[in-house]
Amino acid sequence: MEAFGAPGIAPTWASSDKDLVGTALGTSRVWFTLGHGILNEVFWPSTGEPQIRDLGFIVAREGAWYEVKRLRNYTLSTPAPEIPLPLVVHQGEGYTLELEFLADPARDVMLVHYRLQGEGFRLYPLLAPHLGGSGQGNTAWLEGAALYAQKEGAALCWLAEPGFARASAGFVGYSDGWQDFRHNGAMTWQFSRAQGGNVALMGELLTGEGVLALGLARTPEGAHTLAASSLAEGFSSLKARYLKGWQDWAHQLQIEGENPQLTGLARTSAMVLKVHEDTTYPGAVVASLSTPWGPTHDDPGGYHLVWPRDAVEVGLALQMAGQVADAGRMLAYLVATQARDGSWPQNFYPDGRPYWQGLQLDEVALPVLLAARLAEEGHLSERVGAARMVQQALRFIANNGPYSPQDRWEENAGANPYTLGVQVAALVAGAAFLEEPERSYALSLADDWNARIEEWTFVQNTPLDQQYGLRGHYVRIRPPGALGLRGRVRVQNRGGECLSAQELISLDFLYLVRLGLRTPHDPRIQDTLRLVEALLRVETPGGVFYHRYNHDGYGEHADGRPFDGTGVGRAWPLLSGERGHYALLSGEDPRRYLEAMARSASAGGLIPEQVWDGAPIPERGLFPGRPTGSAMPLVWAHAEYLKLFLAWRKGRPAERISSVAERYQRPRPLAVLHWRSDTPYIAIPPGRTLLLEEARPFALHFGFDGWQGTQELAAVPVGLGRFGVFLKADLLQGHRSLEFTRRFEEGWEGQDHTVLLAKK
C-alpha cells in the first residue's frame, strides 16, 4: 500500500554536532558520521556525496517508547584514540542499547551491530535516505526481507540479520515511522511504498541482538548483493579486518607525548584527517563530513568539498606526523586538479568539478609549500610532476598577485598579510624547482613583495592605535582601489555594512612569523597582537579562543538562531592554534592553547569550526566554549591542532621552509624594485635597479626630469610569463624623476607615469 503525505516535509541534513567520523582502510567507498549517539550521514561513493540523513533507533514496549537520539543519555568509546571503531551505549528507563558501527573494508556497506537489553523492549531502527545528495525525489519500498530506496543513479538496500519482523515506508512528517509512534504510541502502519519525495523506512527487528547492513550501489540489485555478502561473511570477521587496517596505519604515526589528553587528541586528529581522504579519488580531502547548520537546509555541498587550503593543511600535518605516503597522495591529487592557468578553484567536489567560483591566491601558493616541505624532507617521490605544478602555480601568482580576489575567509578582495606572506614563501620555496631566469625572477619578486607587506597592510596613528596606545597595526585587508588603506571594506554576512579598512583586524598577520618572514619580537607584530588580545580574544570556561575578525557576521544570531546569511561571528578553535604557534615561536608555552582546543572537542574528540561565546542558551544546546551549529569536525582545525602539538614537540612549525626562513632571518636589502601598474612605486631610494614589468610585451618610452633625453627600450622576458625593462641604478643616478609610458601591440597605453628618484 502506498504511503500518504507525498512528498513529505522539506528535507534537511542532520545536525553538525557529530560524535565521531569513520571509514574502512580498504577498497570500501563508504564514510560514516555519528551524532547524538546514532548514525548520521553516510557518504558513497566519494566523500562529497552523502546518501542518508541518519539511521536512528526507537526503543519501545507496551505503553512506552523512546527515541534514543533525543534522550542523549549515552557513552561512546573506541579501542584507541586513533581507531574509529565506535561503541555507543544508550541507557534508558529499563533498557540498555549497545551499537557498534563500522564500514566493510572490502564492500560499499555500512554495518551496525546492535544489542538491546530490557524486559519487553523491541527495537525499531529508522532510516532517512537522501540519495544523490538530497532528500528530495527519493523512493522507498519493501521487497521480501529487504528495505530499499532509490533515486536516479543511486540505490540502497537495508538488510537485518536475523531479520525484520515487519517494516514500513513513508513520507517524512506524515507517514514515517516516527510519526506512527508519535500519533499511535506503537508501530501500527505498514506501507509498502513511498514514491518521489522525502521518504523514510522503519522496521521492527526480530530479536534484541543482530546486525544491520546498509548496501550502496548504482542499482537496487547491486546494493542487495553487497549487503547480503557482508552479512554472509559475518560482523566479527569484518570487524577484525577493519581493526587491523587502522592498527597498521596507526603503527606509522610519530605522535608521542607526556600529557595523555593532549597526545590522545593529537592521535585522534590524525585519524580524523585520514578519514576525510577519499578512496574513489585518493588524495582528495574534504573540509568536513558535516553540513553547518544542517537541520536548516538541504544544500548538497555542505563542507564535503575540497578546499586546496584545507587539503594542504592536512598534508602538512600528516607528513609531520609520519604519514608521508598520505601527504604524497594529497600532493598528487593537487597536481591533478590544477587548472591549465596554474590556479585551483575556490573549492570543488572530490572528482574535481568546481563548486564555488571564487579565487584565492593563498590556495594557489599553499600547494607549492607542500611540495617544498616534502622535497626538503626527502619525501618527494615524483619531482617532475611537482616541478611542473610549481612552475604553473608561481606563474599564476606572478601574473595575478599580490592582491587576491578573495582572502582566506572567502569574503573580500585585496591585500591581506596572510595571503601576501604565503605568496612570498611560495615564490622562495618554489624557486628551487625552477630553472634560470625564472628562479632569479621568483626570488627577486618575493623580496620585493616581502619588503612591501607593511606598505600595503600596516597603518599608523589611527583611532584604534590612539585608543590602545599603539604605534600602528596590521589591518585585516587592504581593499582594492585608489584609496587603499584609507578605503572601506564591505563586511560580508552583515547586510551590506561597510567599515573603514583601518578598523578591521584579524590574526592573519601571525603567519608572517610562522613562515619566517618576520620575527616574533617585531614591534609591529607585537603591537597588532595587543590589539587582537583586546578585540578578538574570548575567555570561556574551556579556555581562550579568538574571532576571525571584529564585526564578523558568520555565526549564530545573538539569540542563538542558526546562521541564515547574517549573524554574529563566533570564536574559532583553529585560531587558538594559530595563537599557540606564535606563542611557541616567541618562547612561550603553547600548552594553554592546545588545552583550549581540546576542551572544545566532542565526546569522540572532534574539534568544531566555531564555539559559542555568549551567555548559555540551553534550549538551543549552546554553551560557552562548546561547539555551535557550525561544521564539526573541521579538518583545518584538526590539522592546526596536530601541527601545533608536533611543533611543540619538535620546535618548528610545519609551514616553515628552511629556504624561506634563512632568506629572511635578517632584513634583506632590495636589489631590484618591481614596478607594476597595480603596485607602482611613487618614489625609490638611490642605488636600486627598477624593473618595469607587465604580463605582455611592450616598448618602454621614457625620459628624466620632465621627459628630458627620451629613450625607448623593448621589454624582454624576465621569467614566469612576465616581460620587463631593467633600468639600472647607474642610469637613474643623478636624476630627480623618471617619466615613462608604454606601447603595446595594440598601441600606446594612453597614460604617463612618474617615479621620483631620491638622491644619495
Please specify the SSE layout and strand pairing.
Blueprint: E1 20-23, E2 31-35, E3 38-43, E4 50-61, E5 64-67, H1 68-71, E6 74-77, E7 87-92, E8 95-103, E9 109-117, E10 122-129, E11 138-143, E12 146-151, E13 154-161, E14 164-171, H2 177-184, E15 193-197, E16 199-205, E17 209-217, H3 220-233, H4 235-250, H5 260-275, H6 308-320, H7 324-337, H8 361-376, H9 383-400, H10 417-430, H11 438-451, H12 453-457, E18 458-460, H13 463-468, E19 472-474, E20 488-490, E21 498-500, H14 511-514, H15 523-535, E22 537-540, E23 543-547, E24 571-572, H16 573-585, H17 591-599, H18 635-650, H19 658-663, E25 672-675, E26 683-684, E27 689-694, E28 699-704, E29 708-714, E30 716-719, E31 722-727, H20 729-732, E32 737-744, E33 747-748, E34 753-757
Helix pairs in contact: 5-18, 6-7, 6-8, 6-18, 7-8, 8-9, 8-10, 9-10, 10-11, 16-17, 16-18
What does this structure look like?
- Keywords: Glycosidase, Hydrolase.
- This protein is α+β, with helices and mostly antiparallel strands and 760 residues long.
- It has 3 domains: 20-248, Beta-galactosidase, Chain A, domain 5; 252-663, Alpha/alpha barrel (Glycosyltransferase), CATH 1.50.10; 672-757, Sandwich (Immunoglobulin-like).
- Helices cover 29% and strands 25% of the residues.
- The strands form 7 sheets. The protein has a 9-stranded antiparallel beta sheet with strand order 6-7-8-9-17-13-12-11-15.
- A hairpin with a 5-residue loop joins β8 (95-103) and β9.
- α5 (260-275) packs across α18 and α16 runs antiparallel to α17.
- The longest helix is centred in the middle third of the chain and has 18 residues, at 383-400.
- It is elongated, with a radius of gyration of 29 Å.
- The model has no long low-confidence stretch (mean pLDDT 97).
